[in-house]
Amino acid sequence: MKTLIIGTGYVGLVTGACFASLGHQVVCVDKDVRKIEMLQTGRMPIYELGLTELVQEQLAAGRLRFGLDASACPEAEIALIAVGTPPLPNGEANLAHVFAVVEQLGQTLPTGAVIGTKSTVPVGTAVRISEHLKGMGRGDLKVVSIPEFLREGSAIEDTLHPYRLVFGVQDGESATILERLHEGLQAPMVVCDTQTAEMIKYASNAFLATKISFINEIANICERVDADVSQVAHGMGLDPRIGSSFLKAGLGYGGSCFPKDTRALVSIAGHVDYDFELLRSVVAVNQRQRLEPVHRLREWFGSLAGIKVTLLGVTFKPGTDDIRESPAVDVAEALLDEGAQVQFYDPVAPVVGVQGAEFGVSHDVYESLLGADAAVLVTEWPELLELDWQRARLRMKQPFVFDGRNVLDPLVLQNAGYTFANIGHKSRTFAPMPM
Ligand code: UDX
Asked: Ligand 1: which atom is nearest the Cα of residue 149?
């Protein structure tokens, strides 16, 4: 199928490359000239596992092209909107980019084409798009909602092997077109109206975020009653009604989706006079959880003024270069506010913006620990799991480590002479083994 994708962020680019690999003729467009120039020569504007290879392969096969606007594919049978929906100050998604694209598509798409939203949009957006198009005299265009469920770092795998396909449609013909577009993918299909599809996306992300905040609260209680949250999560997860995923206690969720989508759903509920109390708490717990390392450092050091802290990991999770809503930024801000000095390590992120200033990020973990009074593991990069802690200790001024993701073995750290703390385990701080 001739497929147009508008927006070459994580969602648009990965979706475009994957649909091309399924045999469709795909044109991905973006108004960012720099991005398009990079993509046309097979270079990626984002870091995503396997994407460079997939895009280069599809470019070479002639199934994938790049352009600057919808006019690059005037014969498109389907156009997917994958532009940003950044949050407004009140938490609501800003649809300005989406409607600018709709306006453009209304002028360029051939009769009877389908427009689909891939971006996460408020419930009712597809209906609003249909009305907008009717107002433009383009009532012939069909509007569908096909939410994405891809995770950064495994976006290609998630697109080609999805847990489910959700097709929100307003007519039967659109469902058939969507089936053709997804031919070759093996997954249960949910065909529903567009509002329901839009809600499935928000409810899924909100539920996963709820699991994370839930286990983080359990972790905080575990510490106070001498229980072990990792074992609690394991024990809970063995019940298939609960499931073991998204029960890792830590510094909470970040990234481009969960923080934005949870706030947006609270706001969507508010618009229909419903107080989504549970989700408001999930958001508040997540915000509070991020600052856990700061409380622990304060508990240990007393005042943080003049203390040098290395944050190990800057991205919101491993396997991505994305710093959006990363706990590292909030931790750094709080530390700076208390007079601490902060230095950063990350294997991928080159710089990080904190309080309006840009900080350099070291790619050499041992160098980043030089003179540090404490290290906080924020992102569980595999490199950090294999660190030589004896060697690291020689770099640090004081051997204090806080593991914000529960991935380090307390015994290894204790044996290497560290004062060690993590989340949700017995003894809030482990003293080093006597030498
Ligand atoms: C998420 C959804 O998984 C995906 O379906 C949706 O389309 C986009 O949002 P992503 O943001 O890439 O994907 O990250 P994900 O791997 O889901 O993790 C989200 C956050 O939750 C990360 O900050 C991660 O560190 C945190 N997390 C995850 C936990 O703190 N504990 C867990 O057990 C799982």
From this structure: 7
Q: Which atom of ligand 1 is nearest to the CA of 317?
A: 25
In single-letter form, the type of residue at position 257 comes to C
Q: Which atom of ligand 1 is nearest to the CA of 245?
A: 33
CA of 419 to the centre of ligand 1 (A): 30
Strands (E), 163-234: 165-168, 189-192
What are the residues facing 357 on neighbouring strands?
Answer: 354
CA distances from 76 to 1, 98, 105, 178, 352 (A): 8, 18, 10, 14, 39
Q: Which amino acid is at 420?
A: F
The C-alpha atoms of residue 378 and residue 293 are separated, in whole angstroms, by 9
CA angle 254, 154, 330 (to 5 degrees): 15
**Residue with token string 């392969």:** 57
Which residues are 25's β-sheet partners? 2
Q: Measuring CA to CA, how many Å separate 78 from each of 139, 146, 178, 340? A: 15, 12, 9, 53
Residue with structure tokens 């073995």?
409
Per the prediction, the chain carries an average pLDDT of: 95
- 385: CA distance to ligand 1 center in Å? 20
Whether the CB-CB separation of 20 and 58 falls below 8 Å is answered with: yes
Query: In the predicted model, is pLDDT for residue 430 greater than 70?
Result: no
Q: How far apart are CA 318 and CA 161, in angstroms?
A: 21
pLDDT band at 81 (very low <50, low <70, confident <90, very high): very high
CB atoms within 10 A of CB 120: 22
Per-residue burial over 279-310, b if 16 or more Cβ lie within 10 Å, else e, is bbebbebbeebbbbbbebbbebbeebeebbbb
pLDDT in tens, 270-286: 999 999 999 999 999 99
* pLDDT of 435 above 70: no
Q: Give the Å distance between the CA of 207 and the centre of ligand 1.
A: 11
Beta bridge pairs of residue 81: 6, 117
Please identify which of the residues 18, 28, 73, 257 carries the catalytic annotation.
257
| 433 CB neighbour count, 10 Å cutoff | 12
**Which residue type sits at 400?**
F
Query: Token pair for residue 400?
Result: 């204090």
Is the minimum distance from the CB of 324 to ligand 1 under 6 angstroms? no
222 given a catalytic annotation:
no
CA distance 244 to 248: 9
**d(Cα 203, Cα 197) in Å, to the nearest integer?**
10
